[in-house]
Amino acid sequence: MSETFVTTYSMWRLFRDCRRACQLRYQENLAPIQRSKCLSFGSIIHDCLEQWHGGQPFSAVLQTIDRSHPERFADDDQRRDWHLAAAMMKGYAARYPHEDFDVVSLEKTFEGPIVNPATGALSRSFTLAGKVDGIVKQNGQYFLLEHKTASQIDGSYLERLWTDFQITLYTWYVEETLGIPVAGVLYNILGKAKLQQGKGETEAEFEARRAELLAKSKTGKTSAKRKVAESDEDYQARLAEKYADPGMFHRELLYLSKEQYEPLRAELWELTQAFLDARRRKMFYQNTSFCFHYNRPCPYFPLCSSNNNPNIRENFYEIQDPHEELRCPESTEPLQTF
Fold it and tell me: Which domains are seen in the chain, by residue range?
């Protein structure tokens, strides 16, 4: 019997988006050295939420934020994210001091077979593994708890939740592998404040602004004063006021119908067959429409646009085991991948 390999939703999503990127990440194990700032921030918030919903004191949450930004006193990006994460979690704890659900499990992993929906046969090549943010029980029913950070929480964002291929697929696998009858998904959405800390102005910037004001003044005088940088305390106060707004947080309960599972399972099976065909023919084609998806370059754009330049590969990428989302902090044993 041939050996099966662990796959994840992240791998299949990337294969749908761009087969070449999928090959680089999941066959050649290449990962960009510089991780996405958005991804890093989201990971930190997930860690904080796991601690908070796991019953740890809020002081432990703040310590996690501090440890995650060791260079915040010298690095502007880290300082900004540190301020935002602290304010977001303080606002969250104040918004939800008590929950109306019981936590069944947090950061729960699963692994199950990929099934041919036409015959019921199990794939001899792949299994699917994943990790859910949480499983909770509310009013006698079980729900997946899914954390999201969003730049804007509006009707358009909420309407797109039903298209979440990942969470619907995970619901089915949680039922099948863990034996938990899941009624739907509780989306826990935290808004990202757009407030920026005032930086003040340099002496040269002040003099230039002062000269401009003097040139426009009829009296030849101006009362302008040099703008000073906003203190951390004042910035935190503005963020706290922002996160006191209930609109910065939202809970959306989405019930799932069993009829939604079959099309997704069929699509997953089709993806496995397309992947096997691409690997057999060594034809992982590039989808150039994905190069600037979400208005930013794909992490592999430098490598593809340089025609796989070895210098770009060596300086911008490193070998890294795939499926890092399945790693457990207490375990360093890697999953078998291809």
Answer: 5-195+233-326 (3.90.320)
